[in-house]
Design a protein that fits this description.
Number of strands: 2
Oligomer: single chain
Order of helices and strands: EHEHHHHHHHHH
CATH class of the largest domain: Mainly Alpha
Distance between the termini: 13 Å
Helix content: 55-70%
Structural class: mainly alpha
Radius of gyration: 19 Å
Shape: flat
Number of domains: 2
Largest sheet: 2 strands, antiparallel
CATH superfamily of the largest domain: Homeodomain-like
Number of helices: 10
Strand content: under 5%
CATH topology of the largest domain: Arc Repressor Mutant, subunit A
């Protein structure tokens, strides 16, 4: 029987040593953001990490960092996630306030025109810049963010599927079900059942 554990990364998470002189793959923060709401580790890796945390020594701290660095290497080398895109182009700096706005207001109605105004770019250039930087359009980015929030609500609350859909920016239940199945691979009801009956 294969055992796995689920680890979640908050938006402020950065790889160990990221503040040091070592240069990390520029797309790792983007990769983490667009992953499924969780990442599965093998049981051996999880046990190793927990052992390091329990020991809480200088030596175990080095081993813990090496385990995490190994994970980030595998993440950066993943065919599904690795890209050869360079770090953000200069114009993409204009996207920072857009990302912050989307994070705070993803449950509200948001238009491309509104996001373009926030970026101080034309609509067409904003759309091009966003896709070049993140590998997907702003609408798909917003949809993925909403789906991630819906997944969290399905796992951690007993609210109805329709309530979760509307609370996370979907104004049409059939559209939510379609988008959810497209992104997650199953219906919201099946997803919830899987987590309720592991």
């Amino acid at each position: 029987m294969t055992t796995a554990a689920t680890w979640k990364f908050c938006s402020r998470f950065s790889p160990p040593g990221a503040a040091s002189r070592h240069r990390f793959h520029p797309n790792i923060p983007v990769m983490l953001h667009f992953l499924h709401p969780s990442i599965r580790f093998s049981a051996a890796s999880v046990h190793q990490i927990f052992r390091c945390i329990r020991e809480n020594s200088a030596v175990s701290d080095l081993l813990l960092k090496s385990e995490l660095l190994r994970f980030f290497y595998l993440l950066a080398a993943s065919p599904e996630l690795c890209t050869d895109r360079p770090a953000m182009p200069a114009a993409a700096e204009n996207l920072r306030p857009v990302l912050a706005y989307i994070q705070e207001h993803f449950a509200d109605p948001i238009t491309i025109e509104e996001l373009a105004r926030l970026s101080h770019l034309s609509k067409s250039y904003f759309m091009s810049c966003f896709k070049q930087t993140f590998g997907l359009g702003a609408v798909e980015y917003l949809t993925q963010l909403r789906i991630k929030a819906a997944c969290e609500a399905l796992r951690s609350t007993t609210r109805s599927v329709s309530e979760i859909a509307y609370d996370n920016g979907f104004r049409n239940l059939s559209n939510f079900n379609r988008q959810f199945r497209n992104k997650v691979g199953c219906t919201p009801q099946m997803y919830r059942k899987e987590f309720q009956n592991p």
